[in-house]
Amino acid sequence: MRPDADRHSETDADGGPVGDELTRTLADAEGRHHYDGFRQTIKIVGTGRRGSRALTFAEARQAMSDLLTGSVSDAQAAAFLIAMRIKGEEADELAGLAQGLRDVIPAPPSGGRDRPLVACVGAYDGVADAPVLSLAVAAAAAACGAGIVLHCGDRLGPKYGATVAEVLAALGGPGAPTLEESAAMLKRSGLCVVHAGVALPGWRRLAAIRDEIGLRGPVHSAEKLVDWFGADRFVVGHTHGPYAERLTAALTRLGAVRAVAVRGIEGSDVLRPGRPVAVAAMAAGAEATPLELPEMLGARVSGGGGADASAWITRVLMQGEADDLLSHTVALSAGLRLWVAGLAADPLRGARAARAALADGTAGQALARALGA
């Protein structure tokens, strides 16, 4: 038998290495596949089912920082977003991405933080086929003592639905308020709208890339978790059931006092009256618990989509003249916010207080103050 040394040096008919020599050659080549910078981040999440892994909190935070500052190319940003969409996000990744967003927010002006603040948001791609009721809900909750911070961005795919800022503009308010305008709105009324495209550096550039891709991705979830004006209580809308636990886990990881994920109307933060589904978490690592909420079996809010129609419905609600379905839907969602704010013993009691605020005009007064009237 030939010695091992001779066997290892054998070549094939073309002069290439065979056997163990081939193994070492391949290993050497693999070692030369060096990825640095953001390419390494893409490699972590984009090498397939067996090769990928979740980003750590710190890695996800840095990735978001890189995306917002423009230190990565559009191609790299798109590759990362698609890879994360395919892989799926874990709670710690969402928390890290959200912290990256939080890191770049300018120090907010003071004002309005004498109330318990609840940051409320649905999907940033808006509501297409139903009315946007978030402003009406915010006004009812603000009339009962809560501080409500709504946030959104410009029209965004894949849904391209109406946003709460567009409804605010249709009611006579600013369609893209500065952070200073949002702070003033919050101070005088207890509610405000924050526009991420104006207030969050780098958001619009990243939104353009997301639009070109045409898929929801990790930023669609992470941007819901921003603590505008230092809010430490959250009501976050979502569409897909598995995201409830991820969102609440990410929020408690970030220090939320109380976090509720709502499977709302078209992914919004407004409860569906026929089947209101919400889960809450109140401590880091705590299991998300479903909330018991009253159902109007078979009831569904539909029609009246678009900013102008939503503004008209909001005015009707503020005048106490809406039908029972709309009034119930708004009051229940406002009651949930009052419970999250610690101002009601449970969402149902909060809903009763919100229903009264709609009926006696105090909700309408809160909205009027928000609009500067």
Protein model, in words:
This protein has 373 residues and is an alpha/beta fold. The protein folds into 2 domains: 38-103, Transferase, Pyrimidine Nucleoside Phosphorylase, Chain C (Transferase, Pyrimidine Nucleoside Phosphorylase, Chain A, domain 3, Up-down Bundle); 117-199 and 213-370, Pyrimidine Nucleoside Phosphorylase, Chain A, domain 2. Helices cover 49% and strands 9% of the residues. The protein has 18 helices and 7 strands. The protein has a 7-stranded mixed sheet with strand order 3-2-1-4-5-6-7, sandwiched between helices. A hairpin with a 7-residue loop joins strand 6 and strand 7 (289-290). Helix 5 crosses helix 7 (91-103), helix 7 crosses helix 14 and helix 8 crosses helix 16 (324-340). The longest helix has 17 residues, at 324-340. It is globular and about 65 Å long. It starts with a helix and ends with a helix. The relative contact order is 0.14. Residues 1-19 and 22-32 have low confidence and may be disordered.
Which features would summarize this protein structure in a list?
about 375 residues, alpha/beta, Transferase, Pyrimidine Nucleoside Phosphorylase, Chain A, domain 3, about 50% helix, globular, disordered N terminus
Helix/strand class: alpha/beta
**Overall 3D geometry?**
globular
Quickly count the helices: 18
SSE arrangement, N to C = HHHHHHHEHEHHEHHHEHEEEHHHH
What is the CATH class name of the largest domain? Alpha Beta
Relative helix content: 40-55%
Question: How is this fold's topology laid out?
Answer:
Layout: H1 4-8, H2 19-31, H3 38-46, H4 48-51, H5 57-69, H6 74-87, H7 91-103, E1 117-121, H8 134-143, E2 147-152, H9 164-170, H10 179-189, E3 191-195, H11 196-199, H12 203-213, H13 218-222, E4 233-237, H14 243-253, E5 258-262, E6 278-281, E7 289-290, H15 307-318, H16 324-340, H17 347-360, H18 362-370
Parallel strand pairs: 1-2, 1-4, 2-3, 4-5
Antiparallel strand pairs: 5-6, 6-7
